[in-house]
């Protein structure tokens, strides 16, 4: 039976031991097969290698006095694996223990030599990994519930003034009809209809505990439900009246404006040092705080009532200091 499956043993050997920088000659393969108790000759191994190539496996042969073989493309290239490993290390919602486990599994997709390169240390500024080990599985459960329109139940964590975790509302069980999972600021949030609140709300997934699918009826999405609009209101800076505003900006603020409002934001030069950006925003304290943070490098040019409201908010803030 082993000799019948000889091509599979050869393929596994190549997957486990070769890459572009570490190639195998037929004698290496014969030695490996012999250790497995499989009889083979140079001719049969060459035939098996050709069959693997004909079957679509990317077995590369460098022809020379002794042909050298290695696996060419894998399911993921080394550069792709490195990016994924960096993302796993950086993600706040993945605990340190789960990060190590995932990176170990990702390493198995590379050759042993390439796997060493995946043992990389990434410095992530200001990142704090979650300590909630269940987040990984909660995300998967929520995806399933969203796809099948199932409700979920869970308890929710809050922090006390002593920075201790406790269950919100004395451990009350929340019932949610989940509509969308949103990734924002390196965290997962779920949007949906909360029976407790009687409206669409968001919850941070890493603060959900004991999450499970429930038997309550799913609350259909309202006709005016728009996840992009909800994200704008909740995450960006916007929960007031939507207005078109012109912002007078110093030239070195262009990156900031594009990062916030996108590549298609309308801008126009006003002089050698400034430009005006026309943007749509929701007039709110958060928007005014965003303007204030740039210390005059971004100011409101129009409309007049928004300018006056901003000045009033700044004046009130300064009086409280």
**Uncertain ranges:** none
Shape: elongated
- Please estimate the helix content: 25-40%
SS content category: alpha+beta
Order of helices and strands: HEHHEEHHHHEEEEEEHEHEEHEH
Mean pLDDT: 84
Number of helical elements: 11
What labels describe this entry?
321 residues; alpha+beta; Arc Repressor Mutant, subunit A; 4 domains; 6-stranded antiparallel β-sheet; 4-stranded antiparallel β-sheet; 11 helices; 13 strands
Give a description of the structure.
The chain has eleven helices and 13 strands. By secondary structure, the chain is of the alpha+beta class. It has four domains: 66 residues, Winged helix-like DNA-binding domain superfamily/Winged helix DNA-binding domain (Arc Repressor Mutant, subunit A); 57 residues; 84 residues, no CATH class; 84 residues, Alpha-Beta Plaits (2-Layer Sandwich). Strand 4 and strand 5 form a beta hairpin. Helix 1 crosses helix 3 and helix 4 runs antiparallel to helix 5. The longest helix is centred in the last third of the chain and has 17 residues. The chain is elongated. The termini are far apart.
